[in-house]
C-alpha cells in the first residue's frame, strides 16, 4: 500500500484546528491501515517526524431518504502528533566516528489546510 493509499484526506474541523497548535493533525485514513503504516505515510508525504499516532474506528450512521433506509460506510481517522522541535540525531559508525544524518524535518504540515 502506498502512502497516498493510506492517507485519504485531512479532517478540518474546529477541534482539529485547535489541536494544530500542539502539533496534532487529523486525517481520514484507509480502514485497513495500521499505526506504523500511517506513521510512515505521514513522514513520507509531509517530511515531518511523527512522535505518536492515535487511531479511532468510526462506525457508519443510519440514514433515511423517505421510506428507504441505509447505512453510511464505516471509516477510520488518525490523530498524528509531530515533533515540533526535531533534534539532530548522531550515532557512531564502525570506525568510531560520529555521524549525523543530513535529513531535515519540517516543524509543521504546511499543505494541511487547503483553504488558507
Structural write-up:
The protein has three helices and eight strands, in the order αβαβαββββββ. By secondary structure, it is of the alpha+beta class. The protein has a single domain (3-99), classed as RRM (RNA recognition motif) domain (Alpha-Beta Plaits). The strands form three sheets. A four-stranded antiparallel β-sheet has the order 1-2-6-3. A two-stranded antiparallel sheet has the order 4-5. The protein is elongated and about 75 Å long. The mean pLDDT is 88.
What are the main properties of this structure?
3 helices, 116 residues, Alpha-Beta Plaits, 19% helix, alpha+beta
Q: Trace the largest sheet across and list its strands.
A: 1-2-6-3
Domains counted in the coordinates: how many? 1
Strand tally is: 8
Mean pLDDT: 88
Give the strand content.
25-35%
CATH class designation? Alpha Beta
Overall form: elongated
| First and last CA, distance | 30 Å
Largest sheet: 4 strands, antiparallel
* CATH fold-level assignment: Alpha-Beta Plaits
The unreliable regions are none
Structural class comes to alpha+beta
Order of helices and strands: HEHEHEEEEEE
Q: Give the helix proportion (percent range).
A: 10-25%
Q: In the CATH hierarchy, what is the superfamily?
A: RRM (RNA recognition motif) domain
Amino acid at each position: 500500500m502506498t502512502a497516498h493509499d493510506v492517507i485519504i484526506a485531512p479532517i478540518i474541523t474546529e477541534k482539529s484546528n485547535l489541536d494544530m497548535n500542539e502539533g496534532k493533525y487529523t486525517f481520514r485514513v484507509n480502514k485497513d491501515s495500521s499505526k506504523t503504516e500511517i506513521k510512515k505515510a505521514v513522514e513520507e508525504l509531509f517530511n515531518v517526524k511523527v512522535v505518536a499516532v492515535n487511531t479511532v474506528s468510526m462506525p457508519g450512521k443510519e440514514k433515511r431518504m423517505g421510506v428507504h433506509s441505509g447505512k453510511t460506510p464505516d471509516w477510520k481517522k488518525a490523530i498524528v502528533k509531530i515533533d515540533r522541535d526535531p533534534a539532530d540525531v548522531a550515532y557512531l559508525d564502525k570506525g568510531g566516528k560520529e555521524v549525523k544524518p543530513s535529513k531535515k524535518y519540517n516543524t509543521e504540515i504546511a499543505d494541511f489546510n487547503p483553504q488558507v
